[in-house]
Design brief:
The complex is a heterodimer of chains A (410) and B (230).
Chain A (H helix, E strand, L loop, with lengths): L3 H13 L1 H35 L7 E6 L17 E2 H10 L4 E16 L2 E10 L3 H5 L2 E5 L4 H6 L3 E5 H8 L8 E4 L2 E10 L4 H4 L1 E5 H7 L5 E2 L1 E6 L5 H18 L10 E5 H44 L1 H9 L4 H42 L8 H28 L2 H6 L2
Parallel strand pairs in A: 4-9, 6-8
Antiparallel strand pairs in A: 1-11, 1-12, 2-10, 3-4, 3-7, 3-11, 5-8, 6-9, 7-8
Chain B lengths: L1 E12 L2 E13 L4 E5 L6 H8 L7 E6 L2 E2 L5 H11 E4 L11 H12 L3 H14 L15 H13 L5 E5 L7 H16 L3 E6 L2 H5 L3 E6 L2 E7 L1 H5 L1
Parallel strand pairs in B: 3-8, 3-9, 6-7, 7-8
Antiparallel strand pairs in B: 1-2, 1-4, 4-5, 9-10
Classes of the chains: A alpha+beta (410), B alpha/beta (230).
């Protein structure tokens, strides 16, 4: 299939006619450049959305309670709802097969003191699974474990910024701090992509907090991670069912959002997914339009070029060129030019994206704009196909002109 | 070599048709040096185009090298042209972006000969027309006479059966015309059948047989003095 002579003919033709080769290449390169930039920026936007929800696990579901807003079964409006350990256990047993992680959460505000330094910090009393739900990153030491829960250990995992406040550059691990008057052992230091507020938190075992603050079994919130093998719709259905079940169990009006509500990441993901899907659809529409414009551009130029070369084709035919050899030559030349030009446009686009990527992230919330290999491959195939079409139709026409007519052309 | 019987050709012009060739009978044997004479509009170019398989005839029979030419598709015509015919045109028809050597080698490319061999053969033929030193020049760096000699070399390079020349001296001055005609004579003397179309008496006189065409019919067909002298 590889015909060195044919390639030699093509390179000579391109090389000796640089202006028209550059002209035809430019249209394609420009179209692909625009396509790449457009696609890259939208994918950057998509990355921004993804990272905005990156603070928590993608499969997180939060069960929150407050006061009733609707009377139900003779119970008054404004009744305060309290989650307890039995609710936590109910969820754990009832939906075991749909849950990957589960943790309770108790919010407290505490004063933490180390030597002469002290400050007030927010504290979450949690189960070990909380690490995965909150995407806590352990920098040093360890997170809470089941034994801490069981033994109600007085241990603390502190955020990077608390450590910086109280310990500066010195190690905090295995130091004892004073938390609201009790001595706690620091077993870990963490960081979190959720920002400064998240890193100025402390974690302690949920059981320790229940024992120390009121000696009850109260819980502020139940956090779950649904089984990732569930589809978004299944996860949403699961969340809704759990919401209904819990309301029923706790004598809450079935529609009382205020008393008990569920925040399901699956719903947010579905919304973002739909939004991004729409955005991508628009981009594909606009991008394809650009590509089509490029293809039409190169087709126009090919028609012009082939008209200009009609006489040359006539000569070649008089010398024994078959029509198919002329079509083949033109198509191959056209494909070569579109592929090279397209590749240049793609490379330039990618280069510009990496160049402006950082400043876009700061100013326009477009994070890490880039094009995926699949898109690159698809665009390349479109290019080759467009080169084929752009070259084939006019070449076929030119090759079918009788040599005698072609020789007369000027 | 070429046998034409009752050949007719007409071109449609709007609703009417122009009857250009009205029953031509012509027999050209191998090694002949024939010129077709006629004023413009006599049908001589049409005849050459049909003989050269660049155009199709309407009626009559055309045998090229004993083969009946009928219902040729473009591909077959291209192969026959490449195999049997060499063309020399009035306007040279060299490819402007190829050197003299590459122009001469082009028919060999379509014959499927590899690059090394075809450049070697092409150089031999350029040498034959006295342009070996100009092998790497582009056509626009050559004089008219030189261009026509390149074109002749290109016509010969495939060792065709017939060289067809359409007004080969039409764009040349008298001195270069003579040198081109001398070249064609030399080729004929080596045994090649040469078929020239011209409207110049001096050119026709240098061939061996003159066929005069007027309004699409042959009005005379005679040997020249040159031929009788041999």
């Amino acid at each position: 299939m590889f015909d060195l002579d044919r390639w030699r003919e093509i390179f000579q033709s391109i090389n000796k006619n640089r202006l028209r080769s550059v002209m035809s290449g430019f249209t394609v390169a420009f179209a692909i450049l625009l396509f790449t930039l457009l696609f890259g920026i939208v994918s950057g936007l998509s990355n921004t959305f993804k990272s905005a929800f990156n603070d928590d696990a993608q499969n997180a579901i939060f069960v929150r309670v407050w006061k009733t807003s609707k009377p139900y079964k003779g119970l008054q409006t404004g009744r305060r709802i309290q989650l307890r350990n039995k609710d936590y256990n109910f969820v754990k047993e009832e939906y075991a097969n749909k849950i990957q992680y589960q943790s309770a959460r108790i919010y407290k505000s505490v004063s933490i003191k180390y030597k002469n330094k002290a400050d007030n910090y927010r504290l979450r009393a949690v189960h070990p699974d909380h690490q995965f739900l909150e995407k806590t990153i352990i920098d040093d030491g360890r997170y809470l474990n089941d034994r801490d829960i069981k033994e109600k250990s007085k241990v603390l995992v502190i955020g990077r910024l608390i450590k910086a406040d109280l310990f500066g550059n010195k190690p905090a691990l295995n130091k004892r701090v004073n938390v609201n008057g009790s001595s706690f052992l620091i077993i870990g230091v963490f960081s979190d992509e959720g920002g400064d507020n998240e890193e100025r938190q402390a974690y302690m075992p949920v059981t320790t907090a229940q024992m120390m603050y009121g000696n009850n079994d109260y819980i502020s919130q139940i956090n779950l991670g649904y089984d990732p093998s569930l589809s978004l719709n299944e996860a949403i259905a699961f969340g809704n069912k759990m919401e209904r079940d819990l309301r029923k169990k706790m004598n809450i009006h079935p529609d009382d959002q205020s008393a008990l509500s569920i925040r399901n990441m699956a719903e947010a993901n579905k919304g973002v997914g739909m939004f991004m899907g729409l955005l991508y659809a628009i981009v594909i529409l606009v991008g394809s339009g650009t590509l089509v414009a490029g293809i039409i551009g190169i087709s126009n130029i090919m028609i012009f070029i082939i008209k200009e070369r009609t006489k040359e084709f006539g000569i070649r035919k008089a010398l024994g060129a078959t029509p198919s050899s002329i079509v083949g030559m033109v198509v191959q030349e056209s494909v070569l030019i579109t592929t090279i030009a397209g590749y240049l446009g793609l490379s330039l686009g990618t280069y510009i994206l990496t160049l402006i990527g950082d400043s876009l992230e700061e100013d326009y919330f477009i994070k890490d704009p880039s094009v995926s290999p699949g898109i690159v491959l698809g665009a390349t195939l479109v290019l080759i196909a467009s080169g084929l079409i752009a070259g084939y139709l006019p070449a076929k026409k030119a090759a079918n002109i009788k040599p005698i007519v072609a020789l007369r052309a000027d | 070599m070429i046998r034409i019987e009752k050949l007719h050709k007409s071109y449609p012009i709007g609703k009417d048709s122009l009857h250009v060739l009205k029953g031509i009978d012509l027999h050209i044997k191998e090694g002949e040096f024939v010129s077709i004479m006629g004023s413009s509009g006599s049908g001589k170019s049409t005849l050459l185009n049909i003989v050269g398989l660049l155009d199709e005839h309407d009626e009559g029979d055309y045998f090229l090298n004993g083969q009946l030419i009928k219902n040729l598709n473009e591909k077959k015509a291209a192969l026959l042209r490449n195999k049997f015919l060499g063309f020399v045109f009035q306007s040279f028809n060299l490819i402007s972006y190829k050197t003299a050597l590459e122009n001469v080698a082009l028919p060999l490319y379509y014959k499927g000969i590899n690059r090394k061999d075809r450049l070697k053969i092409a150089l031999d033929y350029l040498d034959k027309v006295g342009l070996k030193d100009w092998a790497n020049h582009l056509p626009n760096e050559l004089s008219g006479g030189q261009k026509q000699r390149v074109a002749i070399a290109r016509a010969l390079v495939t060792k065709p059966k017939v060289v067809l020349a359409d007004e080969p001296t039409g764009a040349l001055d008298s001195i270069t015309s003579d040198s081109v005609m001398d070249l064609l004579k030399d080729i004929n003397n080596e045994g090649m059948t040469v078929f020239v179309i011209t409207h110049e008496e001096e050119v026709a006189a240098q061939t061996k047989r003159i066929v005069r065409l007027k309004d699409g019919v042959i009005i005379s067909d005679e040997l020249t003095k040159t031929a009788k002298a041999v």
